[in-house]
Amino acid sequence: MSQQSRQEYEQRMEWEREEKRERFSLIYKMLDFAGVVLGVICIFVLLALLFSLLSWLKDDISSTFSILKTRLQ
Predict the structure, then answer these.
(1) For residue range 11-45, what is the model confidence (pLDDT) as tens digits?
(2) Which residues contact 9 (CB under 8 A, 6 or more apart)?
(3) N or C, fewer C-beta in 10 Å, the chain?
(4) How confident is the model at residue 70 (pLDDT cuts 50, 70, 90)?
């Protein structure tokens, strides 16, 4: 193999490596974005569950005290 063909081969291989790097970089950025979106959705779901629990707790405490109040009278 001549020196020039060897250099062309190495240059072509370097271009292919760079293309792979760019493709994987794009894939990693898309996965990061998807992870952030899923994380935000999970946070909203957990907040909804927390507010639901607090609402239930408030209603339960008020009904418990109303039952105790009626029994004590």
Answers:
(1) 888 999 998 888 889 899 999 999 999 999 999 99
(2) 1
(3) C
(4) confident
Position 4: which residue type?
Answer: Q
Rg, C-alpha atoms of the chain: 31
pLDDT exceeds 70 at position 59: yes
According to the 3-state scheme, what is the secondary structure of the chain?
A: CCHHHHHHHHHHHHHHHHHHHHHHHHHHHHHHHHHHHHHHHHHHHHHHHHHHHHHHHHHHHHHHHHHHHHHHC
Taking the C-alpha atoms of residue 25 and residue 10, their distance in angstroms, rounded to an integer, is 22
